[in-house]
Fold this sequence. Notes:
- The structure is a homodimer.
- Chain A has helices at about 5-20, 25-40, 40-55, 60-65, 70-85, 125-135, 150-165, 180-190, 205-215, 235-250, 265-285, 295-300, 330-340, 350-360, and strands at about 95-100, 105-110, 115-120, 140-145, 175, 195-200, 225-230, 255-265, 290-295, 305, 320-325, 345-350, 365-370, 390, 400, 405-415.
- With about 425 residues, chain A is α/β, with parallel strands linked by helices.
- Chain A folds into 2 domains: about 5-220 and about 390-415, Aldehyde Dehydrogenase, Chain A, domain 1; about 225-375, Aldehyde Dehydrogenase, Chain A, domain 2, CATH 3.40.309.10.
- In chain A, strand 9, helix 12 (about 295-300) and strand 10 (about 305) form a beta-alpha-beta unit.
- In chain A, helix 3 (about 40-55) packs antiparallel against helix 7 (about 150-165) and helix 13 packs parallel to helix 14.
- The model of chain A has no long low-confidence stretch (mean pLDDT about 95).
- Chains A and B meet through helix 10, helix 14, strand 13 and strand 16 of A and helix 10, helix 14, strand 13 and strand 16 of B.
Amino acid sequence: MSEVREMLVAAKTAARKFMNTSGEKRNEALFAIAEALEDQAEAILAANDLDIEAAKEKIGEVMIDRLRLTKERIAGIAKGVREVAALPDPLARNLQTIVRPNGLKIEKIAVPLGVVAIIYESRPNVTADAAALCIKSGNVCVLRGGSNAYRTSAKIVGIMKVALVKVGLDENLVNMPTDTSRQSATELMTAVGLVDVLIPRGGAGLIRSCVENAKVPCIETGTGICHLYIDESAELDTALNLVENAKTSRPSVCNAEEVCLVHRSIANAYLPALKARLVENRIADGKPPVELRLCERAQKIVDGVAATETDFDTEFLDYILAVKIVDSVQEAIEHIAAHSTGHSDGIVTRSEENARAFVAGVDSAAVYVNASTRFTDGGEFGKGCEIGISTQKMHARGPMGLEELTTYKYVVYGDGQIR
Amino acid sequence: MSEVREMLVAAKTAARKFMNTSGEKRNEALFAIAEALEDQAEAILAANDLDIEAAKEKIGEVMIDRLRLTKERIAGIAKGVREVAALPDPLARNLQTIVRPNGLKIEKIAVPLGVVAIIYESRPNVTADAAALCIKSGNVCVLRGGSNAYRTSAKIVGIMKVALVKVGLDENLVNMPTDTSRQSATELMTAVGLVDVLIPRGGAGLIRSCVENAKVPCIETGTGICHLYIDESAELDTALNLVENAKTSRPSVCNAEEVCLVHRSIANAYLPALKARLVENRIADGKPPVELRLCERAQKIVDGVAATETDFDTEFLDYILAVKIVDSVQEAIEHIAAHSTGHSDGIVTRSEENARAFVAGVDSAAVYVNASTRFTDGGEFGKGCEIGISTQKMHARGPMGLEELTTYKYVVYGDGQIR
């Protein structure tokens, strides 16, 4: 039996015992983990130094920064684990009680998913975050991170295992294969009956590979080609603030805006102001300017790069914004239907009627009226945390918190009923 | 573009319009469909005769019976469609309203899944049932049934399409490929971005093929190796009634019992009584007797066929019951963990403590205390209908009714909030 398969068999056994552990005990584990991570920060940093040394020739500075831990970042990770412990117990939920005419009492109760596999990139903080969310929700996790962070993540997982054992829990609640080749990822994707849910976290390529190859239930996450549509009735200042925020506050994340649709009757007023806001003012303020990629009609109003057709189907994750003029809210809705990834799309408007039409017509996980798409996030939605943002419709949609890491079972109480 | 792909593109477009259709309009469509099916019963029966004639040499009498329609069965189908119309609108649900400190108002509202593909066997009644459930829940369906029922199903779909157009809806809300080869099924399973959810309905082979090959989100349904555990404290009569009902009331369905676990301290009293009830009494009453497949210890108490190891991992769907003596409720739980498909498993007991242990320890979609496993059914659970019974943990578990055919979206209302 391969390492991954052996790990999964042990994980499944551990999951059955863990599913009935009290919320108190799960929190005890989280506090023990937070403390252990802080206590052993030096050892984690030593492993991290080795990872960074080895990765330096292979990856660029941005990726190195995502890989790097510091004492402060470790303290931040530990704080995050304690914050997860403080959240409400997602398993303490009786979702429904049904009493049938024949006297059967059916209770629908929240239970853990079981074994959750997470495939992610070389980000050591995800190792601790994902494990904390799984422990809090009664799930066993198998963490398959990127190879560049292997030493750091392995150290973190080792520390977590010892902390689990210290509070009387099974070390197999948190697992990480030593194999970081494609092979271990493929094994996780195809372990039918052993992996209850697979969650990929990372770039479009990783997610696509999981969706294409997974035989176990998989949740598609993260890719965001997000739109803001500036309606003819939009308040100009609001429309400028929202687009600047959605585009520039953190361009590398999935809820950042990639495309701005503008109603033709406001375009002459809006586009020059937008260009001033996103290009000239930002240069004057020493901030990175946004490259505007303009449709033909927009090019007649302001200067900018001519947009190609692929610009409206690209998750730039950069200071680039595709701009298109449309004739109506309906055309905006149609464009979004054809080009959005169904993550987050919004309208800026003062018309209740157009807001209603947009909300009804746009089939995305989050649909905004007069707010930045950047709010699509577990914390901002009041969930207190986030394991990922689902862009599929099955199981969960949008930010996934602790409740989305649970399923339910029906418990049926009778006194001899037959059918 | 292939037929299936063209169909899916049209289905996706139709789904976007259909998602905002009122509950009234969807019900109007269902009533029009019910009426049309009754009105054109003769044409359906003519198509059905051709199907049966062609299938006679290929399939056995049981399968022919599932394929056969009669005037009464068509009336039953139409009645079923009207009953679906009478159920509450699953889209008229605001699932949650969150008001954030920054003033954002987030509404989590129920919406249709979108395009639902259903792959099923040669059962014309499923064609109408599945379409009705999808229409009621605002979904567009692609129905890929077995080839032996093709003419009948195509006629039913044709009638439904005309009825949809008559009430002003799109004929593309209900779709069926003319290709009934493996190719069309494979295309549905791999149409990433066009099929929102795939639901296989049928035997273990069909479901396995979908789970293994699907790249689109798929719900594993139906396979049921269901257990009843007779605890040492069980009331004998109750235990006999429940096992007879769970095993013999309809052995061919997924919620029928396949395995009976018996506590050793009640086995001497229970097993002879069980044999009398399931074998001798049934023969005397002219009913089909149950073949008992006994573990070694059980064979020392009553006569019967010696069970092989595979008998405890087989969905017999027949008058066969595997019987095993266990030493404790814990051993019963362990056996179920190792051999159950996670569909429906129960305990017969008078001990609250053992009931609690069993309910906590068994991780199946439905866990029973003193009732027949046969109740795992949308109707019996008060859902009024059923598109299938999920045996996976993602999205839905157990009987799936109208609510399980929906997802949700978040609508976020702001007045210019930025992050």
